[in-house]
Design brief:
The chain is of the alpha/beta class. It has 9 helices and 10 strands. A hairpin with a 2-residue loop joins β4 and β5. α5 packs parallel to α6. The termini are far apart. Bound molecules: adenosine-5'-diphosphate and magnesium ion. The site of magnesium ion (MG) has 2 residues, from α1. It is found in: Cell membrane.
Length: 245
């Protein structure tokens, strides 16, 4: 059998402080290839910082990050960032560029793909997120949901092994949330390895393989969605769930 293990992501005992603020206090996580881990927890608990440390936008003070079982900390950080696609709450699209240019730009500039090929690749990704017909539009002419689907297409165009989502639907009008969540669910179904920071408890419950509940820089509970939602073990998680559900 051929090995299909590309994309298994592991963090071990990760610590990170901003000055005196000890934000990550020994985080462990393991996301097997092809699975989706949701990260939930109150504001300020360190969820966004965890994603930024896991793709080495910030270097951890302590701990290790492994991809496919191999530590990546000795590599050039750019390499890990290439292997992990990231989608933020704010879409960060270039306003003066067309949709297809937004998707093809990094392929051309960072991957050195010839312009025609980058454009063809971008159109294919736009097709997958249902927005090929908007290729020539500017971001301002799109709805927030469409902008976020463009941002997802842009990340996918780089052929990442893992995708991170940081509250990807939090800035969207309620009626636009569903379409983006459906796209994320499709992506999870298709076998992408994903780490999803979200307040969408329905998505968390129905799509993720594991859920991590963070509070004050530690993983307080982790397990299957059923375990966490139907049988929370700690008062902190019980309180959190009663606030958000
Ligand atoms: P969450 O995403 O769970 O809301 P964050 O990871 O954004 O939490 O923040 C965790 C803590 O780290 C907060 O106390 C926040 O103020 C602090 N923090 C986040 N980013 C920075 C930064 N760039 N500089 C200093 N402190 C930061
Ligand atoms: Mg955050």
């Amino acid at each position: 059998m051929t090995e299909m293990t590309s994309g298994t992501l592991t963090g071990r005992n990760l610590h990170l402080s901003f000055g005196h603020n000890h934000v990550l206090r020994g985080i462990d996580l393991h996301v097997p290839q092809g699975t989706t881990a949701s990260v939930i927890g109150p504001s300020g608990s360190g969820k966004s910082t965890l994603l930024r440390v896991m793709n080495r936008l910030i270097e951890p003070d302590q701990g290790d990050i492994l991809l496919d079982g191999r530590s990546v900390l000795a590599d050039n950080p750019d390499e890990l960032r290439r292997r992990i696609g990231m989608v933020f709450q704010q879409f960060n699209l270039f306003p003066h560029k067309t949709v297809v240019e937004n998707v093809s730009l990094a392929l051309h500039k960072l991957r050195r793909m010839p312009k025609d090929q980058a454009r063809a690749e971008a159109l294919e990704q736009l097709d997958l997120v249902g927005l090929r017909h908007k290729a020539q539009a500017r971001p301002a002419d799109l709805s927030g949901g469409q902008m976020q689907r463009v941002a997802i297409a842009r990340a996918l165009a780089m052929k990442p092994e893992v995708m991170f989502f940081d509250e990807a639907t939090s800035a969207l009008d309620p009626e636009l949330v569903k379409g983006v969540l459906a796209l994320m669910a499709d992506l999870a179904q298709s076998g992408m390895t994903m780490v999803v920071v979200t307040h969408e408890m329905g998505f968390c419950r129905n799509v993720s393989d594991t859920v991590m509940f963070m509070d004050a820089g530690v993983v307080v509970e982790t397990g299957s969605p059923d375990q966490l939602f139907t049988a929370p073990q700690t008062d902190r998680l019980k309180r959190f769930l009663s606030d958000v559900l």
